[in-house]
Amino acid sequence: MLYPQRFTQFTREHTDTVAALLCGLLLFLGWFALHLGALGLAFLLLPAAYVIGGYESAREGLTTLFKEKELDVDLLMIVAAIGAASLGLWRREYHLIIDGAILILIFAISGALEGYAMARTERSIRSLMSLTPDTARVLLQGREEEIPISQLKVGDEIVIKPGELIPTDGIILSGYSTLNQAAITGESLPVEKTVGEEVFAGTLNGYGALQIKVHKPAQSSLIQRVIRLVEQAQTEAPPSQEFIDRLEKGYAKVIVVAGVLLATLPPFLWGWDWETTIYRALTFLVVASPCALMAAIMPTLLSGIANGARQGILFKNGAQLEKIGKVRAIAFDKTGTLTTGQLQVFQVIAIGEYTQSDVLKAAASVESYSEHPIGKAIVQAAGDLDLVGAIQVQAIPGQGIVGTAQEQQIIAGNGVFVQQYVTNLPEELREMAQSLEQEGKTVVWVAQEGRGAGEQGSRGAEVMGVIAIADEVRSQAAATISRLKQLGIEQIVMLTGDNEETAQSVAKAVGIDRVYAQLLPEDKLDVIRLLQQKYQTVAMVGDGINDAPALAQASVGIAMGISGSDVALETADIVLMADKLEKIAVAIYLGRRSQSIVKQNIFVALGFIMLLLVGNFLGSINLPIGVIGHEGSTVLVTLSGLRLLK
Asked: What is the pLDDT of residues 181-204, one digit of tens each?
């Protein structure tokens, strides 16, 4: 029973191949029967070869004809084959029936080969679908229970064992492990993850057991968004393909009209006999068909989309792959794009008898009660120090924070706020703080006051030092800007709502010459429009809700996949799954490479059509040779498009 099941499965999965094999076998037996003079047997075998080999093409062609009222290439092939057979029966030149059968056989083989070629791209893309398990191991009242992914709710706690796939996005509650995120972000090396960090569905857990908490619906996970966008990319035709599709409809009608004229006029104009005339007209129907031209674009673009997905670059459709290769100017958002969006301690300066550790420890003792990003950055930097929690902590929004630790009052905040508690701010330290602020850093002054030194506001405290806070510039930002300039991008600018000093300091660090600072979302939109007036095709790279209008306006919007907001991800045309800026250069290369291959394919397709048309008019080719040239060029162009899978 096992072998019939396998045979049934094989025929179901490889229908085109089986049809081509049967067509070839029947054709050979029919030819052999004709050779032996067994006309009755031949007339049974050859029609069967026609039906089996040409059924699918005839069905698709007739469906298009009756439902869409359009002619397509499949129907033209069938008409040419039946015409050759009819001519052979009429003239009793039965080799023409063989020619028609060969046409159908080669067309069937070509269809099977194209199917396999496109299936390779399909598998490369659809492999995303198998990245998540069907069930998750959830903790319910202290017991583990497997439930379908679709039933997961926000707040559920999931147990992940070593070697298992993460079923949905979540935050680690306990455990430590390394995760292979290559399938999602394109990162080749495993990433260490521990308590408080986010993990993504479809990534592979390493050696450690993890307990994670679901913090968003399973259908909103990163991998599910990727899958939906990839499905969308496969169904949306880019403008170039839409143009070719429109061209085909008109082109097919021209071929039919030209075929009718070629089948009727040559005997009157050039004295051809009717057999030669009809044969040449049938061959014309074959060689003039735009199969190769139709296959010149989509295989290439789908291959580029699959290649990008493997490298952590998600193109939402083929049109964006086309456009990114034509980009002449790029605008970058600053916070969260060129920078990580996470504040960190840049420098600690102590004065007098105090050390850097004293300054950091004092500030962290009061900031540990603050929810402000600056306070969190200070506490994180002081993580290795032996902190003493402060009491009577009071935060003054926009100014600073005060509290008591080890019977000493600690003051941390801006210069104006701290000056309320001290006699004066040391001039040398003031100059250093001003220099740091001009570089775009946020400066936190730290002072302490001993108990009994006077009530608040008596200026009995003394300055310990300052802490400079900065948004961390992404490590790959400068190299990315340099690479983009090497690729010939004519203009690279930075757009930010931050102040001019901070913007200029980041721009200088990464190598950007033009900066637009203190922008509102609508201002960013206006800058993109100005760039488009001068450079036409403009890309915008951003991550936040305030970047969404500019991302939508840009010719190509590029969003950061991990740090990006949902609005930015939905608005953008391309998503960088691992937030790796260097992938922008890879995306541009893929876009340019795809355009180069498409142009090569169109040149080859048109070249073959012209060569075959001339050969047919001069009588240098017969119907089988025309079919081989026509279908060979189609397969060649399809395989050429698959080069981008590498």
From this structure: 655 554 545 777 888 888 888 778
Q: How does pLDDT run across 57-83, given as a tens digit for each residue?
A: 778 777 877 777 666 666 777 777 787
Cα(324)–Cα(313) distance, integer angstroms: 12
CA distance 307 to 239: 21
Q: Which two tokens stand for residue 11?
A: 């025929």
CA distance from start to end of the chain: 40
Taking the C-alpha atoms of residue 471 and residue 377, their distance in angstroms, rounded to an integer, is: 10
Is 333 one of the annotated active-site residues of the chain? Answer: yes
Sign, Cα dihedral of 335, 338, 344, 349: negative
- CA 280 to chain centroid, in Å, comes to 47
Residue 457's Cβ-count burial label (10 Å; 0-12, 13-18, 19+) is exposed
E strand or H helix at 598, and its extent? helix 583-617
Asked if residue 9 lies in contact with residue 46, where contact means CB atoms within 8 angstroms, the answer is no
pLDDT of residue 451: 45
Query: By CB neighbour count within 10 A (0-12 exposed, 13-18 middle, 19+ buried), where does 486 fall?
Result: exposed
Phi-psi region of 433 (alpha: psi -120 to 50; beta: other; left: phi over 0): alpha
Q: Which pLDDT score, from 0 to 100, does residue 593 have? A: 92
Contacts of 272 (CB under 8 A, 6+ apart): 266, 280
| Cα–Cα distance, 128 to 184 (Å, whole number) | 8
Do residues 622 and 95 make contact, with C-beta atoms less than 8 angstroms apart? no
- 541 beta partners: 332, 558
Pairing of strands 538-542, 556-560: parallel
Confidence of residue 244 (pLDDT cuts 50, 70, 90): low
| CB 96, CB 279: distance < 8 Å | yes
Starting at the earlier edge strand, list the strands of the sheet with 462-473.
339-350, 462-473, 442-450, 408-413, 400-405, 391-396
Residues contacting residue 224 through CB under 8 Å, at least 6 positions apart? 132, 201, 218
C-beta atoms surrounding 470 within 10 Å: 20
Q: Of 208, 247, 244, 200, which Cα lies nearest the Cα of 226?
A: 200
Dihedral through CA 480, CA 485, CA 488, CA 489, nearest 10?
80
Distance of alpha carbon 272 from the chain centroid? 57
Taking alpha carbons only, the member of 471, 474, 470, 459 closest to residue 418 is: 459
* Torsion-angle region of 291 (φ positive above 0: left; ψ -120 to 50: alpha; else: beta): alpha
Lowest-pLDDT range, 106-110, 113-117, 156-160, 417-421? 113-117
Question: Encoding tokens for residue 628?
Answer: 């081989």
Helix (H, G, I), strand (E, B) or coil at 154: coil
Instruction: Select, from the ranges 75-79, 247-251, 446-450, the one with the highest average predicted confidence (pLDDT).
Output: 446-450
At 592-625, the pLDDT tens digits run 999 899 889 889 988 888 888 888 878 777 777 8
Task: Supply the pTM of this predicted model.
Answer: 0.66
Confirm if 382 and 360 have CB atoms less than 8 A apart: yes
Opening angle at CA 636, ends 630 and 641, nearest 5: 130
Among 74, 169, 333, 498, the active-site one is 333
Per the listing, tokens 């929810």 go with 371
d(CA 403, CA 409): 6
For CA atoms 568, 571, 575, 581, the dihedral sign is: negative
* Integer Cα distance of 144 and 139 in angstroms: 5
Q: Tell me what pLDDT residue 253 has.
A: 74
Q: Considering only CA atoms, which of 400, 337, 340 is closest in space to residue 367? A: 400
Beta carbons of 561 and 578 less than 8 angstroms apart: yes
604 vs 545: which has the higher pLDDT: 604
Coil vs helix vs strand at 124: helix
